[in-house]
Write a structure and sequence with these properties.
Layout lengths: L2 E2 L2 E9 L3 E7 L5 E7 L5 H17 L8 E7 L2 E7 L4 E2 H8 L4 H20 L12 E3 L6 E2 L39 H15 L18 H5 L10 H10 L10 H18 L45 E5 L16 E6 L5 E6 L4 E8 L2 E13 L2 E7 L7 E8 L4 E3 L17
Helix pairs in contact: 3-4, 3-7, 4-6, 6-7
């Protein structure tokens, strides 16, 4: 195949059992990365692929998502062409120059986290973030390619092989033994791991031989070590983004915002006799010559979640923070004792202590249960409860939103995809 539509194919870059990746030029001679499926799609797959590609095309208006030049299904096989510009991959840059300065890594993280936040908002996941799929240039902004690894009909085998990039893959089977969790949290994990390596850090779960111990629970649970040349706050942010429990990780938007905040803080505390970060580092790093990232507007905040069947009327506050000594200010609205009327008519009890520890007593189809864990603020008057039952059942989380002047709460529905395993009595 020498051409596909308006594209002139230069040569094959790589192939896996699902797709071929080709270097190509558009009619103006500009470089394009072309992915072509190996096997014909079923009719339903083709329709799903086209709908996915339309969403990606809209999302590619983001300056750090590679622009979609063309997409479609020809002879039953899906194809996707994205513009890369005269860039090279982050993997090539790191191989040539070695670790990047912390301010450049932070700027790169802001750009790519914002790109992922926009994609997640559009219902798109990447699932294969790694240096080979980030294109950078001295004058143009970084762009993320490779979303096709999660496209209908083009989904790659993520468990084995080169495309799995296990050092950047979120741990599987570590929470409940049921395999990898797929979703936004996977992308955040991979991005943070990649940024840590860009700083020059060695991931604790990568063996000395270079073969990653991808599913080694002890290694995966080890925190990312501090780095001599990196600000502790930057490494701490990346630690939170690679938390073993998906519910404890930052979102892509949260990672972007923390990196932006750290950039502003670094500028405020820089001594007068030392150079400040470039002004554009407070956006998405335009002016950093290594990356040349162009400023991007933040991804739109997600719409507030809709309450589930548990309404504010089902919850009654029995004891509030005024009666509890010294709670953390961010947790104060939630601290206390709450009585919950379950759909079964049973009364359940939620206790949130000043240190953030939580106990939930109730019953479900399996009988009485006691779940314990911790409460985390997730913005505004919303909180996430990370819970486990002592019997060793799968961990789960529940989101709460305070309403009614602080006297009740509602429970928004959790995300789909197996990320939440909430007993029926708490829905």
């Amino acid at each position: 195949m020498n051409s596909l539509g308006d594209l002139r194919i230069i040569g094959q870059l790589r192939q896996d059992p699902v797709a071929r990746q080709l270097a190509a030029h558009d009619p103006d001679g500009k470089p394009v990365l072309l992915t072509v499926g190996v096997s014909p799609l079923h009719e339903d797959e083709a329709a799903a692929y086209q709908a996915w590609a339309e969403r990606l095309s809209a999302c590619s208006r983001h300056p750090h998502v590679a622009e979609v030049f063309a997409h479609g299904v020809v002879d039953g096989c899906a194809h996707l062409a994205v513009r890369t510009g005269e860039r090279r991959t982050l993997a090539e840059l790191l191989a040539a120059r070695g670790p990047m300065p912390a301010e450049h890594v932070r700027a790169l993280g802001i750009a790519l986290a914002d790109a992922l936040a926009a994609a997640h908002e559009a219902g798109l996941f990447h699932l294969a973030v790694r240096p080979e799929l980030v294109f950078v240039d001295d004058e143009e902004g970084p762009v993320l390619v490779g979303f096709d690894a999660a496209a209908p009909g083009l989904v790659r085998p993520m468990a084995t092989g080169r495309l799995a990039a296990p050092e950047y893959r979120a741990p599987r089977g570590m929470l409940d033994g049921r395999g990898p969790v797929v979703g936004a949290a996977v992308d955040v994990y991979a991005l943070a791991a990649m940024l840590y390596e860009a700083l020059g850090g060695a991931l604790p779960w990568a063996a000395a031989s270079g073969a990653p111990a991808a599913d080694d629970a002890a290694a995966r649970s080890a925190p990312l070590p501090d780095l001599p040349e990196a600000p502790p706050t930057l490494v701490a942010t990346l630690r939170r983004a690679v938390a073993v429990h998906p519910a404890q990780r930052l979102t892509a938007a949260g990672l972007r915002d923390e990196l932006l905040s750290a950039t502003r803080q670094a500028r405020r505390i820089a001594p007068d006799d030392e150079p400040h970060l470039p002004d554009a580092a407070l956006g998405v790093a335009a002016g950093l010559s290594m990356l040349g990232a162009s400023a991007a507007p933040p991804a739109a905040e997600p719409a507030p979640p809709q309450p589930s069947d548990l309404s504010a009327a089902d919850v009654e506050r029995l004891r509030g923070p005024a009666q509890v000594a010294g709670p953390d200010e961010t947790l104060r609205p939630l601290v206390g004792m709450w009585r919950i009327a379950a759909e079964t008519g049973d009364q359940e009890l939620l206790v949130v202590r000043p240190d953030g520890s939580v106990t939930w007593t109730g019953s479900d189809d399996e009988g009485p249960f006691v779940a314990s864990g911790e409460a985390l603020p997730i913005g505004g008057r919303s909180y996430r409860l990370l819970l486990n039952e002592p019997a060793g059942a799968a961990g789960f989380y529940v989101d709460l939103m305070i309403e009614g002047g602080g006297l009740s709460f509602v429970m928004p529905e959790g995300p789909a995809g197996g990320m939440v395993d909430v007993p029926a009595s708490t829905e």
